[in-house]
Design brief:
The complex is a heterodimer of chains A (173) and B (321). Chain A is mainly α. Chain A is built from six helices and no strands. With 321 residues, chain B is α+β, with helices and mostly antiparallel strands.
Chain lengths: 173, 321
């Protein structure tokens, strides 16, 4: 069920990405809501779930854009690794690690996307793309993280409480 | 360890998908997905546009007033130029008739298409349109704006939809020429306005033959007997930094800001004399073999909602197949 919900949210974000987000241009780029969603899911729900969510959300996003199917899935996968790395932390908060995962994940996403484009025969202006697309996208995505983080975090907390309550009721003790 | 296995599995699935996607195995799936999401995407686009216009209107008010004043001046000049051009066209028709010359493209068949979505990745400049192979579209077909200027080519065709690579895409290159006559060459632009009707296929007015641009003076100027300088040729390429660059120009070329740039027809992938844009700036370096010019696209590529696909022109890359 959780993956159905994740795919539905990713689909909504993918549709928003190709329709509305073109009007929200900051530093020459538009925020990538699907990427932010996967990063938030990875930190809040764990990297194991995130690997599957990254794959599904990536496919959903590629179906709505002109990228070869699988490009976003491949480019979103490192986010799960990053989320696993953020488990080792001194501060007990998920918000700051999410921002870091979104920022670094955006860099990785851009580089992998450019590599796939180059491998499929399209010309890529590496330095221009890095300076004008990838680096600004990293910053802009990090700025938009709270918009996705807060609802996902809230929903996730409610689900966790529900799960604990159910277990208590059915406990043999 | 388990994480690494998962990672490897996901990577293999993704890479396999990319390979299959490049072989068009997923085209029906993408077509189905676009069919399912298009109504929602179109509604969201339509709903967001007035909001965007409202905020842009507030922030750009000064520019809009200034632009409006400039446009009114331009309209007046263009009306004179159109009158002069109509006289010139009439004269050309008479001469063609007298000499028995046939026009190369008497009528262009155009297909109206709606823009559904835009690739906002930043790495590419693509739009999706609601016409596909069932409407007769093929890869390489030329796509024009409503006013008839070049905006790109069909790069990927699905059954009901197509992706159009805009001229500003880093992968796009078009053989182009600068119309002689400097900024006054703007008078050439309105001749490309097609008569668009509600029916999908429409005809387009024949492009006027290359001629020296008429002046924007108050009275229509008679045909000048002075020799016309030859058109300067180059390649218009998409660029992430400047949007559109005109490269491979001769090193000693002198270009005026505002000079019109059209397709040259070389290579056979684009018809001749489709308006691409106007010269915004020129970059000349002593050690460089070629001059570069930055272009401003004639069509507003950021706000496309309807485009025209040129059905009657078969690009060389299609006829060679």
């Amino acid at each position: 069920m959780k993956y159905v919900i994740a795919v539905a949210i990713a689909e909504l974000f993918a549709v928003l990405h190709v329709s509305v987000m073109q009007y929200i241009e900051i530093l020459g780029v538009t925020p990538d809501l699907v990427l932010i969603f996967v990063a938030v899911w990875a930190v809040v729900r764990g990297h194991e779930e995130a690997l599957i969510v990254a794959l599904l959300a990536g496919f959903v996003k590629d179906l709505a854009t002109s990228d070869p199917l699988g490009t976003s899935a491949l480019a979103l996968t490192p986010i799960a690794l990053l989320a696993a790395a953020t488990r080792i932390r001194a501060v007990d908060t998920e918000f700051l690690p999410t921002i870091i995962v979104v920022a670094i994940g955006s860099l990785g996403y851009g580089i992998i996307s450019m590599t796939v484009l180059a491998a499929t025969g399209q010309s890529v202006a590496w330095s221009d793309s890095m300076l004008r697309v990838v680096l600004p996208a990293s910053l802009v995505n990090a700025l938009f993280t709270p918009l996705v983080y807060l609802p996902v975090r809230t929903l996730s907390t409610q689900r966790r409480i529900g799960t604990i309550g159910t277990r208590r009721l059915t406990s043999p003790l | 360890m388990r994480l690494l296995w998962w990672l490897a599995a996901v990577s293999v699935i993704s890479l396999t998908s990319i390979v299959l996607s490049e072989r068009r195995a997923f085209d029906p799936v993408q077509n189905l997905s676009l069919t399912a999401t298009t109504p929602l995407a179109s509604s969201l686009r339509d709903a967001a546009r007035p909001v965007d216009d409202f905020f842009k209107g507030i922030t750009d008010r000064g520019d809009i007033v200034r632009e409006n004043r400039d446009l009114n001046d331009q309209i007046e000049k263009l009306q004179h130029a159109v009158a002069a051009q109509q006289n010139a066209e009439q004269r050309v028709r008479e001469l063609e008739s007298a000499l028995g010359v046939k026009q190369e493209r008497p009528e262009d068949q155009l297909l109206v298409a709606n823009v559904m979505s835009e690739d906002t990745s930043g790495l590419k400049r693509m739009i999706a349109i609601d016409r596909g192979s069932k409407d007769g579209l093929d890869e390489g077909m030329v796509v024009l704006s409503r006013s008839g200027s070049l905006i790109g080519t069909v790069s990927r065709v699905l059954n009901n939809y197509s992706w159009v690579q805009l001229v500003t895409d880093p992968d796009s290159s078009v053989n182009a020429q600068v119309i002689p006559g400097g900024p006054q060459g703007q008078a050439a632009a309105p001749t490309e306005t097609p008569a668009v009707t509600a029916t999908p296929a429409v005809t387009r007015a024949p492009a006027s033959p290359t001629s020296p641009a008429p002046t924007g003076g108050p009275a229509p100027a008679p045909p000048s007997p002075t020799p016309v300088p030859s058109a300067v040729r180059g390649v218009a390429e998409g660029d992430l930094k400047h949007e559109l660059l005109l490269d491979l120009l001769p090193p000693d070329v002198v270009l005026a800001k505002g000079s019109l740039v059209t397709t040259s027809g070389l290579g056979g992938n684009y018809p001749r004399e489709l308006l691409i844009g106007s010269v915004e700036g020129v970059e000349q370096r002593p050690q460089s073999l070629f001059t570069k010019a930055t272009l401003k696209p004639a069509a507003n590529l950021a706000a496309l909602d309807t485009v025209l696909v040129l059905m009657s022109f078969k690009p060389a890359r299609l006829t060679q197949q």
